[in-house]
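To: structure subgroup
Subject: Chain for Friday's discussion

All,

I'm putting the inputs and outputs inline so they're searchable in the archive.
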Amino acid sequence: MMILADHSSGYALGIGGLVFIGLYVLTLIGIGWLGHRAKKENTLDDHYLGGRSFGFGVLFLTLYATQYSGNSFMGFVGKAYRGGFPIIYTVAAMMAVIGGYFIFAPRLYRLSNRRRFLTLGDFVQDRFSFRPLTIFIVLIGIFGLGNYILTNLLALGTLAEVVSDGRVNFNLAVIVLAFVMLVYETLGGMRSVAWTDVTQGIILLLSLGFIAFALFFHLGGPAGVTEGLEAARPDIWDPPILKQKITWLSSILLFFFGVSMYPHAIQRIYAARDEKTLKRSLQVMAFMPLVTTFFLVLLGVMAISIFPDLGKEESDQTTLLMVGKLVEELPALTIMGPLLVAAVIAATMSTIDSALLAISSLVTNDIYRIYYPEANNSELTRVGKATSIIIMILVVMLTIALQGQTIWRLLEIKLEVLAQIAPAVMLGIQCKKIKARSIFFGVIVGIFIAVYLTMGSDPKPYGIHAGIWGLGMNLLTVFITQFGMNRGRTGTPTEER
């Protein structure tokens, strides 16, 4: 298997490597077909939740493969290259996500099992019985998922163009890989997606073992590149200023409230076989940033001393540049190059197919079925598959138009908006007295502030993300509105006495 490394353009696979990647992608279609054969009934429950039968192995690996995507392998590494060691806060941020799940996931699972929830919208409508709130949150979820698909398609297109040394251009790669995902996702729904996630999760873990070995036994770990870092970035060890520290905390909060609201992750909560399986999967997931995000951050930081002059857009290719460097210096690990490329493709595709399936379920279950209540399961499933095709076509067109955007910034924009859903879910689960209109007005205020600040000249006033400012005002509006409604019902304290 011939593999070429080119420092200037990234990491290019030879013909053997490209064949390996091609066979891997075709294998995913085969897994999708097996998922289709395993379908037990033509219902939304089976198509979107795999019959609620996922055991620990499948649930953990599908959560893992979905959580770590092209954003992680390309965006996190590029961010670490641009920011240096301080970006280690992303490890804490990814661990905080699991803390967010534990606030609501076990109780939400019990509710979903009794009430047969299919989507995030099902919970919101069941809890608050206010259709405008449900539709608004569903639309926010669709926006966040569409953004998620967009960022990961950008990563896929960039990856394919670089590793093929230009033989496969960005547009063609995005179109072909999008088609493959559509095929296996529409064939078997969540079951096919989860089974492909198992394959992709295993490849991810193997590839991270390669990264860990390369970093600590060949490059000598963080200490092994200290001199190079100091030469490339003399300010690399300067203590952070107060505003930077505030931004780190803001980022952790943004992940805590934003990532835990991913609609496709919430559907995986519903798909667990039982509550014990769900809790075990989340407990293991809490430690995965230590062996995933941590190594990816180190990879980006170490690249500073090896490739000191990358531009902002080039930095999103840092992972591929480092793979090329390591394979060049360690020929014995040549086979790991295509495997690591497959891992990045796997992580990215597992996230896209999950987000696409979630959008399809939100549109079908929370919008179409409301206006066509007489539709049967067969019709709803067809509508869901058609939705997947339409959404994928639109996002592919947008991806091609937005080439050159940095993945990290698009990731932040998505989280700024998704964080505004958190009060509806977390307070809705924990506080029985919170009313629908309080949440509704809070979400409106939060979205307005988050979008307004994001579109302004300074999206992080005083170092705090727009989404956190929005969330703060969101919660304040909820409590003020709730207090006003309570006073309106009970009268003033004087009247009560």
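Points worth raising on Friday:
Residues 1-9, 492-497 have pLDDT under 50 and may be disordered.
The CA atoms of residues 156 and 345 lie 7 Å apart.

D.
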